[in-house]
Design brief:
211 residues; alpha+beta; endopeptidase fold (from Nostoc punctiforme); 2 domains; six-stranded antiparallel β-sheet; two-stranded antiparallel sheet; 8 helices; 8 strands
């Protein structure tokens, strides 16, 4: 009864002052703030987007969970280049199978395909052609996954199927759904890699796949 009385008094005071948000903040800060609205808990007040992680490679669990279904055929050149890296631990700055980061992973995969990429996600973004309709083998770029300043681009993955990428994140290299809320909120665009002869790598890997 005491707690209910305090809330009612707060309601009367705020109604007279015309400051409803002040009441929400004040009540939420009290020990009983978790039940200020019967049965609703504090979620009504605390509905906000998750903060950007401060650590490279760390993303929310739903963004790490592998989507269902196949990615590429076992005989595909791109899959053959990716396969040895699946499950390799994420290590910021790493470029070996003892530990690799996102851009180190893409460098290694395309090196196996005879293509040389710059080392960082930003320079890979700068070196690729922007495309609106991605193909298997295109790169996909993100921003704000950690504080990568002065670079805008903070993460890169490889498109391996409709709405699916493979990239290096914590805890290890794996595939992720491009449709997850996290990746959608950080999405920048797709980049098509060109071979030294000027032809898009994606066409050499899978000429008919697009989405």
């Amino acid at each position: 009864m005491f707690r209910l009385g305090v809330v009612l008094v707060a309601l009367v005071m705020v109604a007279s002052l015309g400051l409803p948000m002040l009441w929400l903040v004040a009540v939420q800060a009290t020990p009983w703030g978790g039940w200020w609205l019967a049965g609703q808990g504090s979620g009504v007040v605390n509905s906000r987007l998750p903060p950007v992680t401060a650590q490279p490679g760390v993303v929310p669990l739903p963004a790490v969970q592998a989507p269902h279904g196949p990615i590429l055929g076992e005989d595909a050149g791109l899959m053959a280049a990716i396969a040895p890296w699946m499950g390799v631990p994420y290590v910021f700055g790493g470029n070996t199978r003892a530990g690799v980061d996102c851009s180190g992973f893409t460098v290694a995969v395309f090196r196996a395909l005879g293509v040389s990429l710059p080392r960082t996600a930003q320079t890979q973004y700068d070196a690729t052609l922007r495309v609106l309709e991605p193909q298997i083998g295109d790169l996909v770029f993100f921003e704000g996954t950690y504080d990568s300043r002065p670079d805008r681009i903070s993460h890169v993955g490889i498109v391996v199927g409709t709405g699916v990428m493979v990239s290096a994140v914590q805890p290890s290299v794996g595939r992720q759904s491009l449709g997850s809320a996290y990746w959608q909120s950080h999405f920048v665009g797709y980049g098509r890699i060109r071979s030294s002869q000027g032809g898009p790598v994606a066409r050499a890997v899978q000429p008919e796949e697009s989405f």
